[in-house]
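Target chain:
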Amino acid sequence: MPRNKHDPHLNETEVQYNRIKKGNILTEVYHIPSSTNNVVLLFCYGIPSHPFDRFPFGLESYLRQGYILAYPHYEGTFGSEGVCTIENAVNSVLVTLRVLLDGDLSDLISGERFNIKPQRIILVGGSFGGSVALIAAAKSDEINNVISVAGPTNYKGRDFSKLKDRLSRAYNKEWNISPLTWRQLMRGKVDINPIDYVKKLKNKNTYLIHGEADPIIPADYATRLYEMLRDGFGKHQILIEPNVGHVGCHYIGMDHVHESLESWLNESL
């Protein structure tokens, strides 16, 4: 796998950290107030990953560049109350999106208000989070840009028994998924397939990233989705990385990926 080059890590005193909440949904926000570019990267995580993926090591370059990093916790997972229905991961992202766009926020820790005034929000999802990001983008008029890293595009026909056992064994408190949800997922009755949203996604700007050697989600998922989208009005791009396995959101922090994404973002303004 390609290696990233890092300057000395940011000091925690340089980065402002806030926790905000709307209904059941907790979101954690990181930014450097003195250098913000008023663009939010809103991250969607996989199963059974963590909201931060590998933060901050892979994404410091974005903080330094002025991006605001926002990490919602899906309903029924980690710091958000409720029950996770898989589908409501998308709703959780949309709730956070609307809260951030309102701009006037209250920090749960200090009780003080702060304002980040985002001019643009970009969804970034890794693995299952890639599916969440794509569908959330399709459902939102406010989102024009979405990045999916190793995201599945169709869950129908997949066997989730091992994933269910793994979550029950190691993440029982962090992922509160009901037995009914698992049954519906096994039957392909959960609305989480990006290919069902191709018509809307064609008019968005999409960047699909996938490891050629991904043993969990084959790169063909990204290739087939790209072929469905490429004749749309949006700016669609794909990056298939040789000798790279299954990766998450942190992969956009690789130097060459960051540079490519910046070009795509500038072209899709």
Observations:
- The mean pLDDT is 93.
